[in-house]
Fold this sequence. Notes:
Blueprint: E1 3-7, H1 12-23, E2 28-32, H2 44-51, E3 54-57, H3 62-74, E4 78-80, H4 83-90, H5 92-101, E5 109-112, H6 115-125, E6 129-132, E7 143-145, H7 148-159, E8 169-173, E9 180-187, E10 190-198, E11 213-216, H8 221-234, E12 238-246, E13 250-257, H9 263-266, H10 273-286
Helix pairs in contact: 1-10, 3-4, 4-5, 6-7
Amino acid sequence: xxxxxxxxxxxxxxxxxxxxxxxxxxxxxxxxxxxxxxxxxxxxxxxxxxxxxxxxxxxxxxxxxxxxxxxxxxxxxxxxxxxxxxxxxxxxxxxxxxxxxxxxxxxxxxxxxxxxxxxxxxxxxxxxxxxxxxxxxxxxxxxxxxxxxxxxxxxxxxxxxxxxxxxxxxxxxxxxxxxxxxxxxxxxxxxxxxxxxxxxxxxxxxxxxxxxxxxxxxxxxxxxxxxxxxxxxxxxxxxxxxxxxxxxxxxxxxxxxxxxxxxxxxxxxxxxxxxxxxxxxxxxxxx
Length: 287
């Protein structure tokens, strides 16, 4: 029985996972995907020698992590999170579709495929609205559309980009909320940490990577039920579930992260999040 950790950048979270495994005497196999290749004809046993019998996918790159996970899962190696979860959570549209199907409260969202369609979507949602990339993290390329002129300028700029994904327009209503959101770390069927993330003074986004600050969030039974139903809706595993406090609609789920960063949550959490993830991986490996 061996665990693997696949990465493309060693961040604080990966260091904590490595330290947690080391403290337990676990043979944690570390694989930098930028330095490796996979022969898809190799047998399971050969891949397990390098990657382990259960593998934590911790790549920053969505496409890199998903591709490695697919190669390993195809040979019967357990990956956390599994490729279905990686695919859904790595794509905001697929996430929204899963939430709507499971009747999870989420911001009103429209998707369109042309300049004209995107402008019409924005008009129907009303201004301000929010234009987001289908794939991306840390709030990059997330733009508030304050009026039609700004919407037209931003969409015209996206039309000139070479990536075909940039020409699929995922636009959400602008939610009237306090200058904060809620990040929950879910491991299996348990919320191991929940925090408020506050926007920095010069930004409306709450990402800790952009300077947001954190404090513990008091979880009640109703909130716990919502978060665990949300996790189940996308396939479960190790997830970061992000929620907003809408003044009109209450708690709304707006994003789910399948390679969750937990540096901010760890700074105020009563439990060791890395330990919880390693214990979960060991539990799956024994099945």
